[in-house]
Amino acid sequence: MVSSIVFQSLKKSIPQSPAQLAWARERFPALAPYPTSSAILDALAASSALSHEERDAILAVLLRQHAESVTPYWSTLLAVTFEPMLRRLARRVKSVDVDEAEQRALLAFLEIVAKLSTACPSQNIAGHFRVATESTLFRTLRKDHKGPPTVPLDDDAEWGALAIAEADRLDAERCVELMAKIVRAENDGEATLAMLLATTKGSGESLKAYVERVHADLSDDERSETYARMLETRRRVIPMVRAALRAEGRAA
């Protein structure tokens, strides 16, 4: 894959052996084997032989250093690391040209870098980046190009108890606010909120399709377990959202 102008510029801006990397290598064992920026990028590449745990350890250090630094070095390393993911997301954007789509994806990613650097997950950091960046990117695009739509929650017949009447439409912005509030209260994290947002009629994606896309690296059994877990989360959260909306309607 040939790098675009956006990512070519980022790569050129990365120093190979900056003082902050030398200092971090002495402080954090996860970085000790990697004397240069290129060595870190190679270690985090999809072709690397590192385990998920070893990748998480490196990513956690990069996020921590970003939080403690005033330079863009660490966030640039992260952005170049996730270039393939960001460009895949950008290709799904049809409302703007390719260069702008990649810039939008990068901006969404950097927003998530800022969030995760202060609340880093303990595992599957790459997955958190993927889900949260996707959610941020497409939420921003919908706001910019569509305004605040009114959409029903996913009412595919397969959801059984989640099915809602066509007349029971929910204001999208308020629905998102309530989802975020409930997810925070339940300590379910950004990944759960992103799943809930992505699997509403606003995106036209079913939960099964979402799991297959986001968790394509899992085995069939693991995807089935993930699907079942997410479906149970939806069954728990969506009725709470509906109840809150209806209570607001009665109070109005």
Describe the structure.
- The chain is 65% helix and 2% strand.
- Strands 1-2 form a two-stranded antiparallel ribbon.
- The chain is mainly alpha-helical.
- The N and C termini lie far apart (54 Å).
- It has helices spanning 5-12, 19-27, 37-44, 52-68, 73-81, 83-91, 98-116, 125-145, 172-185, 189-198, 207-214, 220-251; strands at residues 150-151, 170-171.
- The longest helix is centred in the last third of the chain and has 32 residues, at 220-251.
- Residues 147-170 have low confidence and may be disordered.
Structural topology:
Elements: H1 5-12, H2 19-27, H3 37-44, H4 52-68, H5 73-81, H6 83-91, H7 98-116, H8 125-145, E1 150-151, E2 170-171, H9 172-185, H10 189-198, H11 207-214, H12 220-251
Antiparallel strand pairs: 1-2
Taking all residues together, what is the mean pLDDT? 78
Kindly state the number of beta strands. 2
User: What best-fitting shape do the alpha-carbon axes yield?
Assistant: globular
Strand and helix order: HHHHHHHHEEHHHH
Main sheet properties: 2 strands, antiparallel
First CA to last CA: what distance? 54 Å
Residues in helices, as a percent range: 55-70%
Oligomeric category:
single chain
Beta fraction: under 5%
Q: C-alpha Rg, in Å?
A: 20 Å
- The helix/strand class is mainly alpha
- Strand numbers in spatial order across the main sheet: 1-2
Sequence stretches where pLDDT stays below 50 over 5 or more residues = 147-170
Please give the count of helices: 12
